[in-house]
Amino acid sequence: MGRNPGQGRRPGPAPAPAHARPHQQRRTPRTPRTPPPAPALPMTDGYRHEPGPGPRLRADVVDVYIVRGAWGQPQPSRAPQLLLIKRAKPPLLGTWHPVMGHIEPGERAWQAAAREASEETALDVWAPPCAGFFALEQVHPFYIAALDCVVLSPRFLALVEPPWEPTLNHEHSAARWVQLDEAHSHVTWPGQRAALAEIRDALSRSPSPHSRPHADPGRQHAAPMTLDLLRLPPPTR
């Protein structure tokens, strides 16, 4: 028997009819083009591709800046004041600083800040005469050579109204109020001066730097526009 010329071959695509229109004719799929590789940036001698050994990174210290002013009045009778407390034991014996402390296991930074304010000054940041508790946006790193670590310290602001005064614990021997506009000359560290500049800027950007979030909710109180974005709501109990 003679062999059919097409016998044993795999069937291929049927040819398009002679009368088929161009868009009906079978087209070979186009292979997607692979973009050329991006040119590598020149590496400078001395840089490593992967991080090597270095100081530890910590974020377990908080600062709380307590600022006193007549926040509930349309026109404050006095300029805002910053609370500074004097350290009574090492480390930092004899230095004046805002409320400072460490975050305990299981705490969040804002919880540690509220606890430290209560322990060191007896201030409840969630109740009058505290007019608001805020998380500052900027974190200012500093290096501790004795521990070979870089510390990223979250910072917080508590606005209080007169005549509130702190009640100190055993960690501090004295307290004093300084004008907020002059406070940068009374603190020790560059990061604290930067935090004070952030506080002054936030207050100055507000159309009315007064706030009483714990007062009667039926009353209307103008709140600092910038600080409202940083306000911490009271925790659910």
Short description:
The protein has 237 residues and is α+β, with helices and mostly antiparallel strands.
The CATH class, by name, is Alpha Beta
Oligomer: single chain
CATH architecture: Alpha-Beta Complex
The backbone outline, from C-alpha atoms, is: elongated
Counting helices, strands and paired strands, the structural category is: alpha+beta
Q: Low-confidence spans: pLDDT under 50, at least 5 residues?
A: 208-225
What is the count of β-strands? 10
What is the domain total for the residues?
1
Q: If helices are DSSP runs of H or I spanning 4 or more residues, what is the number of helices?
A: 3
Layout of secondary structure:
Elements: E1 56-58, E2 61-68, E3 81-87, E4 96-97, E5 99-102, H1 109-121, E6 130-135, E7 142-144, E8 149-151, E9 155-160, E10 172-179, H2 190-204, H3 225-228
Parallel strand pairs: 1-8, 2-9
Antiparallel strand pairs: 2-3, 2-5, 3-4, 3-10, 6-9, 7-8
